[in-house]
Amino acid sequence: MREKKPDKRKVQGAETRKKLYEIAKKLFSERNFSDVNVEDITDEAGITKGAFYVHFESKDALIAIIIADYVAGADTNYKTFVGALPNEMPASEVILALTEKIADELVDTIGCENMKKIYQMLLTGSVDTEAVKGYGRELYLLFYSILDKGIRRGEITSSLPPEALSRHFVMAIRGVSYEWCVRSPDFDLKVQVVEHCRLLVEGVKAK
């Protein structure tokens, strides 16, 4: 029986989509999301704008895919970071160390202008942002595991279950990050987000 040849058009389509993705990712790493338009991407890819819209509904749709992949990688890095901390380290200190790590990532890798674009996409709901906001995101699970361990060790006490507590910590980081977008450059995210989460930690630490 002869082996079925792959559909040439499908293969070419997949290659074009991947090329657009990689070029957009490179351009977005060099400039803010708002400073790159579809034409910049297609010019570098050597294809027409019409071909772009065959593969992606809009620039925002492509950004959402890139962000989803980035979030998955970042959350894996956060998990690795926490896993490398001493096992005997109190849960409260682990939370603050993780919060500081997240703040570093937001400031040094994503940047304020790109965070504004991400919040705009979250607020308008124009594209799928479940990878960022979904409760199934690995970041929520990571906070859950830290808090659950702290509760079992008697380091943390709260009337709320660890699942609810984890959501509050992520909401706090998201809220302070939004404040950063509103008040930048007169707002130090790295200082403020750790300070805010320290207040939350003090509220749940066993006395």
TrEMBL record:
One of its GO terms (molecular function) is DNA binding. Residues 14-74 form the HTH tetR-type domain. InterPro entries: Homeodomain-like_sf (IPR009057), HTH-type_Tx_Regulator (IPR050624), HTH_TetR (IPR001647), Tet_transcr_reg_TetR-rel_C_sf (IPR036271). It comes from bioreactor metagenome. Keywords: DNA-binding. This is HTH tetR-type domain-containing protein.
